[in-house]
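Interim report, section 4.2 (structural modelling).
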Amino acid sequence: MTPRVPTFRLRMFLVTTLIVAAVLASVALVSGSTFYAYEIQRLDARLCAEGWRLAERPPRADEIDRFARDVAGKLRLQSVDQLLLERHEGGAGGEVVYGRWPREITLDQLAWSDAPVGSLPPGPGDPVATPAGVQPGATSEQGARRSCRIASLDTGDSGWRAARVLGPDGEGIVAANVAVIHAELWAALQRISLIAAPMALVFTALGAWLLSGLALRPVNRLRDAMKSVHERALDQRLPVGREDSEFCELIASYNEMLERLEASFNQASRFSADAAHELKTPLTILRGQIERAIPKAKDPELQQELAEVLDEVGRLASISRKLLLLSQADAGKLALLRTEADLSAMLNERLADAQMLELDATLAAEVEPGLRLQADEQLLGQVLNNVLGNAFRYTPPGGRIGVRARSTPAGVEVLFRNTVRELSPVERSRFFERFYRGDSARNRRADGHGLGLSLSRVIARAHGGDLTLEPGSEYEVVLKLTLPRSPGASA
Amino acid sequence: MKVLLVEDEAKIADFVRSGLTERGFDVEICSDGNSGYERAAAGGHDVVLLDIMLPGRDGLSILKDLRTAGLSTPVILLTARNELGDRVEGLNLGADDYIAKPFYVEELSARIQALLRRLSGDRNSRLQVGHLVLDRLERQVTCKGHAIELTSREFNLLEHLMRSAGRVLTRKQILEHVWGYDFDPSTNLVDVCIQRIRRKIEFIEPAGEAGSPIESVRGVGYRFRETT
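Predicted structure of the assembly:
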């Protein structure tokens, strides 16, 4: 199980949703607290007004209940239980106490603060109604400012807001339970968090999902285009098309990168092609002249030496030929001469060679007859020579060589397996590497260069097939050659 | 047999000429594309050997113009740079065969002879050296009238040796001709195969004092004995 890789789209979706959720929450928080402050302010204003009324015109004892209900109504309280009233004797009018004042609280302990200016309604008859007999300074000051002070009191289980108004005749104190405001706030928050917020979130999430998909569309198009380039050759370029300018730049950069890559690749490829070609003329001359010299040499020893030199020249020729073919294949220019090839016959011919060699190995061949395909017979022969040649050479005495060729829906598949002394994981991973030889002491390729397998694979791929090293034990090499029946089909 | 060789590399032209002359061909040499085209177009050759990279004009364009002009002289391309591509294009343009550089003159000579035999309609498919008679069409070998059973490889090897009778062939030369490219040159396939052919021949005609018609040349290779 591999961990699921988060996609860019999923991430965009989650991040956007989270951000919007956070924004919604902070908006709810800010608006909630603003709303609360505003409600408290309104309550304070009303408390002051009612406090004034209580100070100015105290109800008679039998009117207290009615008065309290009236005050509760004006303060928009749900019941009179949420109201406390108290009036202290100043001048005229009596003492009033209504509601259950918490005993432990004395009014003077509370932190009273002046109510904001403007929160007090104009007092009836004020300041004209200021009675005489009171100190003029104090009277005029009290009357002019109609002092109302506000305090919060906490009784433990609920919060109260109290207003203390000092009138000319006495002091009126009105307190209201703020539970009603809390309840309103809570209801509003619930409406927001249960209906508005989820809906906003759903819309945002949907939008984020769709938008990120939309944003990724050019990227996906680009990816598909890059894939198709990769499968073909380096000389392909991505079409700029009608993409947005950001993507146009990306495509241009990618195309530039391809161009540089192609240039350096072509240079390397051309270099080995040129080198191989430049070698061919002197090799042709060498070979021709030695060939001519051998029969002329009367001394058998000289003849033998010349023959050895001729074989070495042949080896050089073989290397340069392979290098040239490899560089052409790398440049995607391996020109195939396809004819109808009988793979079964080609395999059987080489298996007969193995029998003729009387190798010290058991040979198990299972070649389906009549395996025909459109292929370059010369190059295909080279592949078989190489792969089988390796098997003949590297199978230790008493080992096994197996060849199984069969047709598949797309073409043919040939499995070559042979036992080897030991193939380390390093050797296995570098199996198709050019000029790589395994442990040189043990595995020395007789023709001295490890190009054959690499070339074989390149030839198989040029045919639309492949040559792969199959997983197996370290004492066995299993090579799988797949070839399509015709150029169109893929193996 | 008149051969026109269009090749700009003087040393190559030189050994090809001497090698082919030795094998009974009459070789004419042109060292650039334009004169090569003129000489070939003038006709009178049995086969044209055309190098592809030439000063003046390249071999493929010469070939194309020769065929457009209706000249049917067989052409063998000598390719170096892009062996496979030139092979495909050359054969499409009407070349009869191609041979990749570096080549053995022995191989070139064998190809010319094979091409000429093919074009002459195989009137004479029989090849006789000494008591051995090899029929290419029937793929049969007889010795003193007795048939010898040979595998396909053995047959091809014997034919190659008989066609080059009198000349030494190295193991690698034989391997490349009979088995193709990339066959492990360290195997003793050639020796094993020759031993088998020898035994089959000796079964009918025991090797006398002269020994087997297939001679070993120590350290070099093998030679089919020419009859004197």
